Model the fold of this input.
Amino acid sequence: MKKVLLYDTTLRDGAQSEGISFSVDDKIRIALELDKLGIHFIEGGWPGSNPKELEFFKRVKNLPFKNAQVVAFGSTRRPFTKADADKNLKYLYQAKTKIVTIFGKTWDFHVKNVLKTTLAENICMVEDTVDYLKSQGLKVFFDAEHFFEGYLSNPDYALKVILAAQDAGAKTIVLCETNGGMLFDQVSVIVKKVRPKIKVSLGMHAHNDSGMGVANSIAAVLAGCDHVQGTINGIGERCGNADLGVIIANLKLKLNINCITSKNLEKLAEISRFVAEICNLKQQSNQPYMGSSAFAHKAGVHVNAVVKKPRAYEHISPEKVGNTRRFLISELAGRTSILVKAKNLQLDLSKDTPQTKKILNLLQDLEHKGYHFEAADASFELLMHKVLGNYKRFFDLESFKIVVEKRIDAKTKKPKLFSEAAIKVKVKGVREHAVAKGDGPVNALDNALRKALRDFFPKLSEMHLSDFKVRVLDEKAGTAAKVRVLIQSQDKNNSWSTIGVSENVIEASWQALADSVEYKLFKDSKHK
Done:
């Protein structure tokens, strides 16, 4: 079986993505997870670029990696200087990694117009740098920057550069598709021409500017590469790098190529979410293999088929990559989706019962009015319990009032908004009245409701709102438009979503907020 080595550059190339800035601790945490996944090489960064990178390499050398080797990254020596006098190369050596990756120019356009040197000197730079680092006892990988553009422009020169790196002692030659504009047939043809000339490991590094990052990486492997680079979730400069997780899944499941173990493959979805969280980015729901929607089924016909035979609409079993199958509740879903949901909740429903038809009709009517239950599982679960008659309200709203005032703050002497909510609810036959302030009207209302309920339901202190989203459903209606409010809540064990829809944003917020609290109380009552 062919084996492909995996090289992750999330910590270096991925960090160049707009809006991402890793701390040293972030990089350490990601590196440890990549090691658990079974990645062979982790590119830690460029030691000469900033103090943060130097600190990372100082700390990472003491970590107990089981699978991965950490790699330092840098460039060739500067034009017309000596390698042993180049400051950046000294930083590479001081990083104390056993492997270093250097990049060099292979496109004659770049050599002349960006590097501003001669074609001959560029080759000397590559040779001298590889030779020097090798003399320091380091294993050298050579990233042939802009190789495909260079090959199309001047194939003889592009080949001379990578052969010079090989002859100088580089152990892996990586063909970089730096601008991300190649199509997979171009990549395949060029790799096939290059492969017979390279006696060491041949790698592929693709960017995603034309949406071909993963396809070009797979094409390169099929054409002869045995080393492939990428980033988790495809993060990176401009449109990002090839998504290494998707590459891994395709290599392992589609091509039967040995890259990581089947057991480690089951960690893919988890590490995708982990890196997204560290980056403070929302994971792409439609990300192949790992996204939350990758195995989500909404249309009634699809749901019905997948319940019978999952392969009817799934190309692999989601469990193989650590993901899960989901059946979405919406007006497009038929009775099957409702029955599947009921089964998961251990509710007694069958296809022909009147309650099933009532739930379906209610669902379709509410979604027509703007509700969106696939994004609000908790609200839909409450709806089902209410229709089935096994739900008892925990409190009843009598009234609420919210005051938002803009005035001069006594401390800062600057204008500031102040929000205060007053609420009256009836709980277990007792009328409660509470007043609370908040950062905004919804926060004030949330605080007032909790204050009114806390003596009756102490466990409410465990939950908090973790996300709040508002969407205008009909922009043409202007200020009279309906709005949809989605609230994400969580406690120490679970997370859940609720929804509200109204022409009034406060009323929509109240609906979602009330459902959120009711759901928490309902779940707690079932586990007593």
